[in-house]
Amino acid sequence: MSAMDKTLIEVRGLTKNFGGLTAVDGLDFDLKEGEVLGLIGPNGAGKSTTFNLLSGGYPASAGSVRLEGVEMLGLPPHRIAARGIMRTFQHNMPFEGMSVADNVLVGAHTTMRSGLIPVLLGAGAARAEERKARERADELIDFVGLGEFRDAEVTTLSFGQGRLLETARALAGEPRIMLFDEPAAGLTPGECDRLAEIIRGIAARGISILLIEHDMRFLLPLADRVVVLNFGRKIADGAPDTIRSDPAVVDAYLGEAGGVGAAAGSGAEPRPHA
Amino acid sequence: MGAALSHPWLRWVAGIVALSIIPFVLQPYELDLYRKMLFWVALAISYNFLFGIAGQMALSHFAFAGIGAYTVVILLTQADFGLGIAVVAALLLAAILAFIVSFAATRLEGFYLALATLAFAQLLTVVLNEGGSLTGGTGGLTSYSFPAVFGVKIEGPWYALVMVAVMLGTLAILLRIDRSWFGRACRAIRDNTEAAAAMGVDVARTKIIVFTLTSVMAAAAGMVYAFFDNTVNPPVFGLENAFLVLFMVIVGGSGSHAGAIIGAVLLRLTQDILEPIVGHYHALGFGVVVVAAILFQPKGLIGAWDALRARIKARK
After folding, report:
1. Domain extent listing, chain A
2. What does the pLDDT read at residue A274?
3. Fewest 10 Å CB contacts: which of A100, B71, B99, B135?
């Protein structure tokens, strides 16, 4: 990653209060073009709340989130997706009545330009678009390694495969930015390695990535830069190597789970809502 | 034959020809059952899209058939509209009412949507009963007939072809949009609203479009129904039939077009065959079929068929 100077997302003073509790408190950070940014912190640090603020799940109490200078706070989730920001869910949320291929095609929703009338009339452009979307969905299914399950019902997938489906589905929206909500949670070590490889592949396509993650062992080798949260505030922001030895970070993790490594792979973080 | 029928256009042509020949070989009583069955199939197909595919548990579907039926008759007989204008105006009225109901209902889901749309259906029967000379009150409207089109009277088997056209038109439109981004968006909303929104689906807008479109389709079927017996009355558009169309979709297999058709045909047949034999006890047979389907085969008859086919395939 060389040309990471253009800022895509600018988060300033982002704050969320739940009654008397301030889950996110004046958070500032940038996501640059082509960057893999990790957002990390111990349980209750405000990671999931931050994620929900960015993806339109919660209204913010204060602050701003700008995509190339345009305010995004207050937009409903479907409008955020339409701006090229796609997400995965920590607890897989597949469309259970549909095949793997159709799940991925739903992800392509914002890329479909044909109106309902051309679709109804079977217009050539609408049919070509549908064909192209199917080809792309097939490519993405192969990319995440679910090729043999293309026509399977999603209920037959394992949890790890479901996470890969989440990834392919979000990619189908041709995002500029991918938001991953604790992607390693609930995965076996082998599945984590596979997912890390896929995330590197996504970054190699020039898609910026924001990874919200509890598991340091998964995140640090992947991220270009890491923002560390504790009690809703940013306590560190820098390269993974400097983060690893940052006294404030070590302190935050030591105080909670007995060391940076020990926090790995739990994925059982309670969320403020949901 | 099987190979030739694999081409989708040929299948449509074969279907149109077969359904269009049938009315001409039937006796009058059978013809009446046939066209009413087509009416129910048309309603079940559009209701399946609303309930089975888009996941909206609305109970107003049959009420919209009533709105279509009453409106077209009133416009023809009391406003002296021409047939074409009356049909377009009735569809437009149904669309406007459906839009208003769905706009109000986008915030409601499941049980609450069912209650709100049920209230709308009940309101309609009150309006029909209390509508004075406009709706004919409890007795409804009678003694009208389908106007001649360019001087030609369309009657008997020829009128049944109108129902064939509306039924097949409903099916063709819904199959088309089901196999597009729109159909997938509908199923996505049904399966997981939050994830659908995150994928960029405008949930409220999609719900409104589906509700309005399928309700207008119900109104179109209702308009044809109005001239089957040249009478419309409030009890027909009451609760019993509102639930019957729901049961058809559930028994056949909700979410499946073929399932909706099978469910509609089966439940009509149960009634048509049993009623002459056991009278009112036919409802018992109907109840047994519905309860058995819900208990033993939640995916409906089409689900049972798929499971059977999978088992045969596995054995080969």
Report:
1. 1-84+175-274, 98-173
2. 36
3. B99
Q: Residues A62, A15: contact at Cβ < 8 Å? A: yes
Q: Is the dihedral of CA A104, A109, A111, A116 positive or negative?
A: positive
The bridge status of strand B231-232 relative to strand B141-142 is antiparallel
Contacts for A133 with CB less than 8 Å, ≥ 6 apart = A105, A108, A111, A112, A172, B181
Q: Buried b vs exposed e over A231-255: b needs ≥16 C-beta within 10 Å?
A: ebbbbbbeebeebeebeebeebbee
Contact A119 B180 (CB under 8 A): yes
- Whether the per-residue pLDDT at A254 is higher than 70: the answer is no
* pLDDT reported for residue B220: 98
Mind listing the pLDDT tens digit for each residue in B260-272?
Answer: 999 999 988 888 8
Q: Given this model, what pLDDT does residue A251 score?
A: 83
DSSP A115-130: -HHHHHHT-HHHHHHH
Contact B200 A169 (CB under 8 A): no
Q: From the CA of A128, how many Å to the nearest CA of chain B?
A: 12
Distance CA A1, CA B198 (A): 28
Provide mean pLDDT across the span B212-223.
98
CA–CA dist B188, B203 (Å, integer): 9
Nearest to A76 among B195, B197, B209 (CB): B197
User: What length is written for chain A?
Assistant: 274
Structure ipTM: 0.88
Q: Is the C-alpha dihedral spanning B225, B229, B231, B237 positive or negative?
A: negative
How many Å lie between the alpha carbon of B220 and the closest alpha carbon of chain A?
A: 18
Could you tell me which of A109, A128, A88, A119 has the C-alpha nearest to residue A210?
A88
φ, ψ (nearest 5 deg) of residue A16? -140, 120
Domain ranges of chain B: 8-236
- Percent of chain A at pLDDT above 70? 91
Tell which wins on pLDDT, B277 or B52. B52
Nearest CB to B255 within list A78, A97, A110 = A97
Q: Is the pLDDT of residue A2 over 80?
A: no
CATH code: domain A1-84+175-274 is 3.40.50.300
